[in-house]
Amino acid sequence: MNNATNNAIAGAAVVAAPGQPVQPAPYKKVDLKSDRPTWCPGCGDFTLLDLYFRLCERRQIPREKITTVSGIGCSSRFPYFVQAHGVHFIHGRAVALASGLSLSRPDLHVFVFSGDGDAFSIGGNHLEHAARKNIHMTLVVMDNYVYGLTKKQTSPTSPIGFKSKTDPTGAVDPPTNPMKKLIAAGATFVARTSHTNPQHALQMMERAMDHNGFSFIECLSECVEFYPGAFDAANPRKGGQFTIIEEKKNDGTPEDQKRHDPSDEAAAYKLATLPFPGVFGVFYQAKQPSKNDREQQLIDTARAAAGNAGPLASLQKTFARLK
Amino acid sequence: MNNATNNAIAGAAVVAAPGQPVQPAPYKKVDLKSDRPTWCPGCGDFTLLDLYFRLCERRQIPREKITTVSGIGCSSRFPYFVQAHGVHFIHGRAVALASGLSLSRPDLHVFVFSGDGDAFSIGGNHLEHAARKNIHMTLVVMDNYVYGLTKKQTSPTSPIGFKSKTDPTGAVDPPTNPMKKLIAAGATFVARTSHTNPQHALQMMERAMDHNGFSFIECLSECVEFYPGAFDAANPRKGGQFTIIEEKKNDGTPEDQKRHDPSDEAAAYKLATLPFPGVFGVFYQAKQPSKNDREQQLIDTARAAAGNAGPLASLQKTFARLK
Amino acid sequence: MSNTSNPNSGTAVVANAVPIKDAVIRIAGNSQDGIQTVGELLARYSGRSAQEVMSYMTIPATISGGPSIYQVRIGSDEVLSVGDEVDVLVAFYQHSYEQHIGVLRNGGVLIYDPDQVKPNLDDKRFACVGVPMTSLTIEAVGGKGRDKGKNMFLLGLIARMFDLDTVKLEAMLKDWGAKRDAGTMEATFNAFRAGYGFDIGRMGQNFRFIPNERRTGRPLVVMAGNQAMAYGLIAAGVRFGAAYPITPSSQIMEILRAELPKYGGMFLQAEDEIAAVCAAIGAGYGGRVAVTSTSGPGLSLKTEAIGWAVMAEIPLVVIDVQRGGPSTGLPTKMEQSDLNIAIFGGHGDCPRIVIAPRDVEDAFYSSIEAVDLARHYSSPVIILSDQAIGFRVEAFEEPDLDKIVREMPIDFTPRGADFKPYEDTPEGIPHHAPPGTPIANNNYPILTGLEHNEAGHPGEDPKFHSVMTAKRRRKLQKLAEKLPTPEVFGPAEGDTLLVSWGSSYGPAREAAEKSIAAGEPLSALCIRYLNPLPPGLDKIFDRFKRILVVENNDSGLYGFGQLAAILRSRYCNPRIGGINKADGLSFKVREILEAVHAQAR
Amino acid sequence: MSNTSNPNSGTAVVANAVPIKDAVIRIAGNSQDGIQTVGELLARYSGRSAQEVMSYMTIPATISGGPSIYQVRIGSDEVLSVGDEVDVLVAFYQHSYEQHIGVLRNGGVLIYDPDQVKPNLDDKRFACVGVPMTSLTIEAVGGKGRDKGKNMFLLGLIARMFDLDTVKLEAMLKDWGAKRDAGTMEATFNAFRAGYGFDIGRMGQNFRFIPNERRTGRPLVVMAGNQAMAYGLIAAGVRFGAAYPITPSSQIMEILRAELPKYGGMFLQAEDEIAAVCAAIGAGYGGRVAVTSTSGPGLSLKTEAIGWAVMAEIPLVVIDVQRGGPSTGLPTKMEQSDLNIAIFGGHGDCPRIVIAPRDVEDAFYSSIEAVDLARHYSSPVIILSDQAIGFRVEAFEEPDLDKIVREMPIDFTPRGADFKPYEDTPEGIPHHAPPGTPIANNNYPILTGLEHNEAGHPGEDPKFHSVMTAKRRRKLQKLAEKLPTPEVFGPAEGDTLLVSWGSSYGPAREAAEKSIAAGEPLSALCIRYLNPLPPGLDKIFDRFKRILVVENNDSGLYGFGQLAAILRSRYCNPRIGGINKADGLSFKVREILEAVHAQAR
Ligand SMILES: Cc1ncc(C[n+]2csc(CCOP(=O)(O)OP(=O)(O)O)c2C)c(N)n1
Ligand SMILES: Cc1ncc(C[n+]2csc(CCOP(=O)(O)OP(=O)(O)O)c2C)c(N)n1
Ligand code: SF4
Ligand code: SF4
Ligand SMILES: [Mg+2]
Ligand SMILES: [Mg+2]
Predict the structure, then answer these.
(1) What ipTM was predicted for this assembly?
(2) Distance of CA D481 to CAs D358, D484, D485, D535, Å?
(3) Nearest Cα to Cα of residue C271 among A131, B141, B165, A12
């Protein structure tokens, strides 16, 4: 019997990479640079890319384990620009692919980079079920309130009145509220940030990465080409307001009463009802076993019940019953 | 120039049905019976069918305008059992079809009957966008917490521990909360009821029908074949509790303080966080123009700007610009 | 024949039993009567007795159940189809009798329940035996059980009639009842013994199967096609799958969901078919060969993602248990009409491997083969099974699991600095490096659905597209060269060659056998590899005046079924025609023979 | 040729201009330079001058823009392709020069900006004219504008070179600038006039198009294929559509979203392609003929719902503006590789109508025809356009809108007691009663994707499936009988027939013309109706030694492109072969001629 079959998904660790350096030299973020980004100069997505580099560098995620997944959109070009394993998948389904990848490869921390159309329009359902099941991954939606790659159509987050090629007289449909959507879906980590505050954005990415289960970050990321100025109201340098959620410290002080408890779902939802620019930070976080954990439990139980039999013995037993 | 082009979707009223009786004789619910339902004896879906008959009878919806749309599932067999216009569509897409039907035929009040798998699993995204856009229709999800037609697989509403063919040792994933989902999506009418309280269920259907925009009802409907007893805890006759939401009357009394204001979104969400069996009634209702209204507005504006020109004149004008 | 023989004696005891090689028994009742249990026990018993067996059942239209049949064909020789006609018809109800008497062969035996059925006793074509199954069961079981147990009475009756080994059968009954309470099991045995004890001497005939001479001594296993497929995947080392329930494929996911944890694997019930195939692709990218199983509508939905797997060249096994189409169609009936979408169903030039098992045993081996092909060619492989194969039970030689069962560890071998995920090699086959694989020079691969250069990055040069398109096609052309040419059953040349695929294999092959026995020999050939096609078919076709493709699908706009159209396109052989049928039912041997003659006119 | 001629004089003024019938101009720069504006203005000008015109542009790979070209071919005769070689190449940058000098014909004119480009002046094949466009524009516009306006300088330059009517051109510029501020427009005119005033006498040649003799006097309209299609739908009475953005089809939805309200209609941007087709089906059920437009990946996603429309027999128009596939493929490049999925892309036997326009003008008429076919046959109709047709601009005779434009009111005519939605008539065509239609006896129809009886209810009898499958197929077979046999261009019999479809029509036809002119005549034929195929092709094919199907797709596993494979299947004519190419670019006439000769070997 093979010990490795005790890992979620047998064999994930079977073939150790021979010759893999035990203690590879630390890498720098410039080492992660790959293709020159095809984004427009000034696009908010550049910040996210840089932050991802910084995150990897800071955490020294083993080079060969960095795995970046995306769908289709300007934002989803991300994997080409990271010198690491990556997938550029189809529109709207990055989270679905990442679900299979994460569950079959619990040794990875999969990062998904998506756009507002990719995630909330065509991909809206996959998001929700991955969140509900708490499949371990981090999803960053680079939300520019517009379809960038296809050149300015209305997106599910475009505000009413936004003039696009599919709403030449202004968008008429109330937009999706990503925070509400994800909290209601049962995501266990839900945060909001903006590319204009890289410090904050990086903090959110770090916390998301440390979270067990499905973590979600909406990061406002300006499309300078098709929706310039969209987020000025959230940008102090443009006269706007970037209000950071103050989280409860449980320090017994009276100020703490007013602070937000990220484990309070109803309170998180209430925060999400604030009008634009709203607040930034962790709206909701809950400690729950991830789907990956729960499936591992099923495996452990089943293997114990089977006396840890190997595949041949197990199948032979089944066939004996079918005679 | 044709006046009729002023209707949302030109021509919807152009060909009046010649010979259509101006004042047809009132019909009774038995007149609406069609195929004998293929449901198992005792299935909760029978109640819903009967209530729909009662609703039509009570409101005397013109016979030729009753339009019943469904996807695939036991519940979705509905249209065959109603002697009226109907569509039995594909799995998960009934709301998407109904969106096109409603928007192009604002003269109809489209009823969609769906199951928990049909609506929340494969169809989960269509629901949300129809809700967000507030497309005029009533969606009734006959929620039995299981896949009936395909014979007992886990559904998105199956509670943890429910033993099904796809979770033989009990479901492991936290279920979808339909109330949360729809409130967060921006639905303007969100209600919950059960087939075990037909009086209440009918009341919900009436209120949904009177609502302008997207109205949603989750109706618990027991699958006696694959999940008997699922809703006993909500059934007083089985020792359970059917708690009805008391709505604010704005009568200035102190009791009224404690009553639920259905226009308060955060309060509605809070109600939705109650554990099973939770409460029943209207969680949320908001007065908002429907997508149908908003599109009509666009039409009115565009037609006025075009001097109410007919199609030939309009197209000629465009072609003149293309010379 | 004695009424007093001890049903527990353990050996065949019925005197004067006529030796037979083949019997077709149809039990017609309601699905609630437990006829499926009887049928399955009979099938399993046959397997254990080294008889070949094939079964067929119908699924009632209403969810709560209703009229249903279970048909078993037991043979001492190869059983290729479930039988056009039946030798013994058991009718529980008047509707059972009326609907099914038409399939009883002249000289066959009708067993009816006189409590429920009034047959036309003037019809002397059949031996009509009234067995008051309802009342005798109630009597045997003791009032309160009503007629629950009627099925067990019938099993006993059949055991006597065909001189089955009751010790074996009772042991099987015990297994079957392992989780049932003692009272139920007592009733079960009482009913069974009452049935076995019932004197059917009036019909003048008992039977005994002569031993199967073809058997090699390996035991037979008895299972349905869906089971065979699920276990084949496990044997091949598949440890991840994802699907969404859909009839008639759900059983595959249900088995894998229950079984995989035992093997350290898991199966994901996804929110829809698109998510399922994407999750399987994710696991494929992670270094697995993963599976997604579905039926027609689900395959339509998976089209886009399968296209990505073709483009990105990711291993993936897609099982389509075909049912009647298009759209929701006939969810519980068989059809072979998804060949077009399997081969052509993707935008762009989108070559993928398509294979079809011809029976339950082949379902087991095909799923293993599919895994190997997917892995070796780094390509999606679609397996076209169908409702008939998926649901019917067959006995086949227990596979040599020692040789077959394998693990499929992820290959993390570090790659050199010259590693390119899409290198344009003569074979055209990529060997992907999953995440976790170190790459020298840190030159990591991107897998993508955009047209790409050898490094997996989108290039501006339009030449890439020509090169990569040719590479993806060439990969399958190379595979085609290695495929075995199918064998011809019957004369190597002649008037007519019957070409089958998937579940039309059995009846087509049996039609050839019958025609040979009748001295008007037809030949038969089954194509298991549908895309790419195996080599050598042209030479075989050249030796026949007519090539008739037998397939359960429509004859199409221009008169040809789906495989026939593809063969015509490839070989431009105008002698290729078809025998087609779209009524949701497998071919009867007779239908094929009649069509051959009708087309000869 | 004088430097002082007044650019405002309103008539052609350039002396000694050489009369020409055809010119191909390629402007190569960056997309940010506004070269598309110049190209489109030139195209529109040509249309207004009763010249034929065709344009072609490339889309830069980076989102912010980058190298890009715009090519215009202007002709006094029919313009069938955008031209293999160019007569005039304008190069703004060194990279423009280097990448495109290869397509300049011997004897052609290179206009380059010496501020940016250092050409090889030793290459005497071309007349090289340095025009300091950057500096002259800055000079003309006045410092601050940098070189914005360079495109307008170029327009002026070209106007002088081809002796265009500047009054007309300046009027067009005014239209174009209607919403721009006065300062910008002043700069625009300054740059334009500076360009017109620039002395290019050194190159020794100015040109003037000779009047188009084929013109009937009807004015020409100038538009891109996507526009033509959108306006065709409006003309045909379509008042509802739904789509999801995707390149290169988005423009169709954008136009309809903006325009339909004017006509009392609406267009829905759905959450994805599946929702879009379902919404269109909903409107179809409501009594409309609705449209959904998409490109390859979207068509893959719509497969299941289209199957429902086939089964339920609902009118539906699906537009697929093809791009390079499979998967995300080449989103901004052309290809003709979605024929297979259009015809075969649905599970089950799923017949639907597929047509393909051959050029921009035909895109207008095809969309009208699709609406009529969808309505008449109560069937989905897929229109296969492609990126080349969708994006390129052509001039064509203004359609006779008086005769064409129609309303399409919903038919609420009450139905009799005998009304059956799926009556099995000889023609097989249903006439659905949308909601709102009273039915005598209140016997209301259900539309369904389950196999059904004539009333639309699921039946148990397997015969329904045979009957209904045949009915759905027969409907298309009847349509096929009525389709016109395509006309052969060139000799009615001979060595080689070039068969084209969609956008390979132009180059194939021009290849035939050239070969005839060269005395080695090839014939050409274009198939617009791809499923079902029109009658009479077999007879035509019989008259040629070789039938070569010219299509922009891969030659496939067995050596044949997608249409070629279908024709071979239907006619079993081994002389059917193909000329294929998968590089994302339209055929050059030369490529076709070379392939014909190469295959002749
Ligand atoms: C199935 C499919 N539908 C549509 C498209 C076209 N498409 C590409 S990106 C995109 C949306 C881009 O918007 P978003 O997701 O917000 O990303 P952004 O470009 O704004 O970063 C669309 C509709 C596609 N590639 N595939
Ligand atoms: C595309 C597609 N996928 C799957 C199915 C199979 N299927 C039919 S009904 C159903 C789910 C039924 O569950 P639910 O929606 O809860 O309805 P219920 O039967 O419980 O009323 C499924 C998965 C299908 N018909 N089509
Ligand atoms: S179009 Fe917008 S989102 Fe895309 S790269 Fe440019 S600025 Fe960024
Ligand atoms: S299976 Fe369940 S949901 Fe379906 S009809 Fe029977 S009781 Fe109702
Ligand atoms: Mg966006
Ligand atoms: Mg259900």
Answers:
(1) 0.95
(2) 22, 8, 10, 6
(3) A131
Integer-rounded Cα radius of gyration of chain A: 22
Most informative mutation of A226, A227, A231 for ligand 3 (most atoms within 8 A of CB): A226
Closest CA to C550 of C584, C521, C507: C507
Rounded Cα distance between A37 and A75, Å, is: 10
Ligand 2 contacts (CB < 6 A) are B 72-75, 91, 115-118, 142, 144, 146-150, 155; C 244-246, 273, 297-298, 301, 328
Q: Ligand 1 pocket test: pick from A149, A176, A225 the residue with the most ligand atoms within 8 Å of its Cβ.
A: A149
State whether C349 and D343 contact (CB < 8 Å): no
pLDDT digits (tens, 9 = 90+) for A15-71: 444 445 456 689 999 999 998 999 999 999 999 999 999 999 999 999 999 999 999
Q: How far is C327 from chain A (nearest CA, A)?
A: 22
- Using DSSP, state whether D318 is helix, strand or coil: strand
Q: Is there a contact between C294 and D297 (Cβ–Cβ < 8 Å)?
A: no
Residue with CA nearest ligand 3 atom 1: A148
Whats the size of chain D, residue-wise? Answer: 601
pLDDT score for C17: 78
The overall longest dimension of chain B from CA atoms, in Å, is 77
CB contact A60 to B (< 8 Å): no
Q: Can you give the pLDDT at residue C12?
A: 46
Interacting residues of B173 by C-beta distance below 8 A, sequence separation 6+:
A132, A133, A134, A291, A294, B154, B160
Which of C62, C250, C297 lies closest to B91 in CB terms? C297
Contact assessment for residue D319 and residue D267, using Cβ atoms and an 8 Å cutoff: no
Distance between CA atoms of residues C422 and C439, nearest Å: 15
Per-residue pLDDT of D494-532, as tens digits, reads 999 999 999 999 999 999 999 999 999 999 999 999 999
Residue of B nearest to C62 (CA): B38
What pLDDT, on the 0 to 100 scale, is given for residue D9?
38
Q: What are the strands of the beta sheet with C104-112, ordered from one edge? A: C127-130, C104-112, C86-91, C22-30, C67-75, C52-57, C393-397, C220-224
Integer Cα distance of B124 and B155 in angstroms: 12
Torsion sign (Cα): A43, A45, A47, A49 = negative
Are the Cβ atoms of A89 and C449 closer than 8 angstroms?
yes
The sign of the CA dihedral C584, C586, C588, C591 is positive
Kindly list the distances between the CA atom of residue C261 and the CA atoms of A11, C224, C294, in Å, as whole numbers in the listed order. Answer: 13, 22, 21
Cα-Cα-Cα-Cα dihedral sign, residues D268, D271, D277, D279: negative
Residue ranges of chain C whose pLDDT lies below 50 = 1-12
CA atoms of D380 and D386, how far apart (whole Å):
19
- Is A172 in the B-facing interface, judged by CB distances under 8 Å? yes
Backbone conformation region of residue D431, classed left if phi is above 0, alpha if psi is from -120 to 50, else beta: beta
Give the integer Cα–Cα distance in Å for D46 and D79.
12
CA A319/CA A307 separation, integer angstroms: 17
- Residues in chain A with CB shorter than 8 Å from the CB of D30 are none
**What counts of helices (H) and strands (E) characterise chain B?**
10, 8
Across the interface, of D259, D278, D442, the residue whose CB is closest to B96 is D278
pTM listed for this prediction:
0.96
**D371 close to D233: Cβ distance less than 8 angstroms:** yes
Do C241 and C51 form a contact (C-beta atoms < 8 A)? Answer: no
CB D478: neighbour CB atoms within 10 A? 15
Hey, is C116 helix, strand or coil?
Answer: coil
Q: Quickly count: other Cβ atoms within 10 Å of residue A52's Cβ.
A: 23
The token pair that represents C3 in the structure block: 């009424």
